Protein: PAR14 polymerase
Amino acid sequence: DSAEASPSVVFENIERCSPNCLQMLLENISGLTVDADFTVELIPEINVAVATFIKSIDTKKFVEKCSQHRRVREFEMTARLLESTQTIKAENLPDSISTDYLTVYFESTWNGGGPVSHVQLFPEENSAIITFCDNRGNI
Structure:
């Protein structure tokens, strides 16, 4: 069901497309504006970008349009919906962070969160694993 589709789309193999070019390409395909209607997060370590739509669109149709778009194919990029998950890893956390703080932060709907069932801190890595009660309200 499109209403339940993720608002985020993953673009893989982005190395041949500069960040500005990618943003313009996504604006051209979607007819929307970066920052006002969607955001783009680059994850260069794994050669991926994630576009998250603030404005409600049919992301399944958007992925189809991207897959058929000539420029996307020329750049050899792929597009797919971001899978829902119940568990995320938070990294680069301050030394003084507490499980209570992380629970409250990730339960905030303002931050895109939802009910948290468990937080496991890894102080030696300055990271934590946050597990949500379900996969509807995840960041």
Summary: The chain has a mean pLDDT of 90. The chain has two domains: 8-81, 87-132.
